[in-house]
Each structure stands twice: as C-alpha cells, then as structure tokens.
C-alpha cells in the first residue's frame, strides 16, 4: 500500500472488458514526506476519490480482481482509501 495524490482523470475510448464502468484516475505516488516518487500511474477508483485528494493505492492483483469481480484483468493499481 502506498500514498498517492490524484492528479487527474483519465478517459479511455477502449477499455478491457473487466474495466467497463470503472473510473480511472491518474495518481502520483508519494514518499513518506510527500515528495513525488516516480512517474504517475493509472489507478481504478474503488472509493470515489477526486482530483487533489491523497489516496491509498495498492498493486495487489487479488484485490483488483475482487473489486472488478473478474478473474482476468490488466489492472495493476487500485485506490482503496482516501486520507482524512
């Protein structure tokens, strides 16, 4: 699990079948002191996050499959919480 800042929304004209109806967000992973960590990544939003919010993301494949209710998905990152 990592902290990340939501930096934008993503629109896809074509999605994998497992991602239909999912909101995609661009997030910038952060170090513990809030500095950026690497390049931004795409994440499937499972909690209703918005631009400017700090979120918790995970790269757990099993969690992504459960969120999307499928056994096959190309999703790597999912948003699992919003920081208060």
Question: How would the blueprint of this fold be written?
Answer:
Blueprint: E1 2-10, E2 23-29, E3 41-45, E4 54-58, H1 61-68, E5 78-82
Parallel strand pairs: 3-5
Antiparallel strand pairs: 1-2, 1-4, 2-3, 4-5
What descriptors fit this protein?
single chain, mainly beta, 1 helix, 5 strands, globular
CATH architecture: Beta Barrel
**What is the H/E order?**
EEEEHE
CATH class descriptor? Mainly Beta
Query: Runs with pLDDT <50, length 5+?
Result: none
CATH topology (level 3) name: OB fold (Dihydrolipoamide Acetyltransferase, E2P)
For the largest beta sheet, what order do the strands appear in spatially?
Answer: 1-2-3-5-4
What proportion of the residues form beta strands (DSSP E)?
35-45%
Q: Main β-sheet: number of strands, strand sense, barrel status?
A: 5 strands, mixed, barrel
As a whole number of angstroms, the C-alpha radius of gyration is 12 Å
Termini separation? 16 Å
Give the helix proportion (percent range). under 10%
Structure description:
This protein is globular. 20% of the residues are buried. The chain starts with a strand and ends with a strand. It contains 1 helix and 5 strands. It is mainly beta and 84 residues long. The model has no long low-confidence stretch (mean pLDDT 94). A 5-stranded mixed β-barrel has the order 1-2-3-5-4. It has one domain: EutN/Ccml (OB fold (Dihydrolipoamide Acetyltransferase, E2P)).
Nutshell version of this structure?
This protein is mostly beta strands and 84 residues long.
